[in-house]
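SEVERITY: medium
COMPONENT: batch folding queue
REPORTER: lab tech (J.R.)

DESCRIPTION
The queue accepted two submissions in a row. Attaching both inputs and their returned structure tokens so the on-call engineer can compare them side by side.

ATTACHMENT 1
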Amino acid sequence: MQSSSRLTVDITVIHNNLKKLVTAFDQVMVMVKANAYGTDPVLLYKYLHLDKWKNIPFIGVSHVWEGICLREAGITTPIFVISAPPYEAETVVIHQLTAAVSTLEEVEALNAAGKKHAKMLPVHLHLNTGMNRFGTTFNEGKILYDAIQKATHLHLEGIMTHFAAADLPSFDAFTLSQIEQFKAFLDSLPTLPRWIHAANSGGAVRFPLPFCNLVRIGLGLMGYGVCLEGVEPALRLSTKLASICEREKGESVSYNRSYTLTQGKEKIGVIPVGYHDGFHRSLSGKGYVLIREKKAPMIGLVCMDFMMINLTHIPEAQVGDEVTLFGKDLSPEKISQWGNTDVRELLVSLPDRVQRHWIHPAHFMHSIMHSIRNEHDTDPERLPNSLFPFEKDQASR
């Protein structure tokens, strides 16, 4: 039996969003990290037929193990990995992943692994311009560039940086300084690789980057954050009303007696969503859900598996009624503001027990039924030999 809580994913909306993004930015890396922003990276990939989009040269993840999961699902599209520590170098080569590199140790480990397995490996040099998470400095980046060029089993396929606050106008001066640093580094190099990328969804929308030819799109694909005009929200979280009771003035509700009735008799509802389901305690008593198109305030501390709501002004509410936690009329961004967090955190916190329900045209379903999670596609040797069809040498600028 499935949970009564479900995240509804409208694949038609996501498909239309992707078309708008590709039209606007031409070459797009679709980021499917963190379970594809709380959905499912494999199903998203196959429903959208990402292998057939000529304008999508990569799909992107954060960790090597995420790339392995995609490979084991039979996905052969180039997979870009933000972080590939030296101790994972051999795994990167075996599964033919495309790694960002920030240090000489990473370059040396990947080159050694490539030599061991007789494979040429594409890498993207990561320049740190202010995110201060990964990336090399300007001067060390020149050394790293030369090291990659000299490496016998590495191919410099791209150069990247990562904006720290491109979504926020209050930090525009900082973002512009990152852009200037990145452009200066590119201008200092004798040749440039095939791909130059810096922007996430918000950065691509808000800043012109004519010297870049690839954007990394994740949250924008779902219709959230700073978006292009016409991009629409694609997700809805719902559950069912599990219980109703009446309590008297002076009684308290939830842990630590965190809500006390002060206005006389009240009607209290319980829904089977708590902080294990992504609705963290920081939301306690701060927002509402929708029942029968009416607002039902959250009351008391959010529990691990349940949350209480006030139904006093919705007397027609009944056990089993559908409850909307976010969707078209109540955005997840508003929920995240109530909890003093970010919409990304809310989406990726949804656990497996929240069932995913995909809305899609019939032809999408028909075309993928034979290939979803095929256990026979897990062997790295099944990857095509031409997955990285490039030459070592580059043309001068």
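ATTACHMENT 2
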Amino acid sequence: MRAHLKRAFLIASKYAGLFWLAGLLTRRGLRILCFHGSSLDDEHLFRPKLFMRAATLARRLAFLKRAGFPVLPLGEAVERLRAGTLPARAVAVTIDDGFYGTYRDAAPLFRRLAMPATLYITSYYVVRRNPVYGLVVQYMFWKTQREEADLGGLVPEIRGTVSLRDAAVRTRVMDQIVDYGEARCDEAARCALARTLGERLGVDYDEIVKRRMLGLMSVEELRGVAAAGLDVQSHTHRHRFPMEEAVARQELVDNRAALEPAIEKRLEHFCYPSGEWSARQWPWLEAAGMKTATTCDEGINYAATPPLALRRFVDGEDISPIEFEAKLSGYADMLRAGRQGIRRLLGGEF
């Protein structure tokens, strides 16, 4: 009900001219869109914030064209934002992670439309060629039709049959299996653990592997999309950028070692994994030669926005067309600013 009311409010706002007004007031700002994976099967139902049907992505890009939003390469867009030469309502498009669906469905769409996009690649699974371990475990728990399963012996903390009807228990054992695999197993042991888990849950892990669901592009595929004009950039090696400086710097080194030989250029734009960032990390990025870094903080970017804390609109299958339009127009930004102002007033902050 709440979602329907929100959409009705946005539709009324649009036809009252408020989207147009917001676009006028925010026209000097840079909108950066964030997409993730293209769904190969039912991933958009499993994680609608992370995966999107190819048809939905096609409609988003068609809207950008139809509504006349200038789409620029990210690096050029940020430079022109600083210089004050950015076209009105300019957009840059980014795609995170590098899922195989991006190669199969999204990349041909961008090429066909002659639309630039930046691909932020996390490289560990580009090299390893397996499904992303944490994601595939979560997917199999989501996919199973069983109400209970014998998960004893998979990890030390779990013994015997587990009720999958209880959401809290289900989440707890799922997290235990993810944590155990990531902290205490090598890649071969993780794959074996995931395969055994699939057998216990009645989900065919080998079919997931065969169809390349929840997996990333190969080095060869990455080389192909880069040669076709899409801009490959950095998203760390293991999808982490912690506050430990030595570990964070190594992530950049390992990411470069995996990607730069394939794309034959220096990485200079960065995306924070999971959108988690701190200004304390900026000197590490600057020392590594990164010119920009994008977050998952929502909003439009202006000349004063720090280049290592660029805001984005994160899109997904769960975002309706009117919500997408509200974000791009700047109306969602205006509503957010209004809510924050009201909170400050009510809290006595003047």
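NOTES FROM REPORTER
Residues 167 and 327 are 33 Å apart (CA to CA).
No errors were logged for either attachment.
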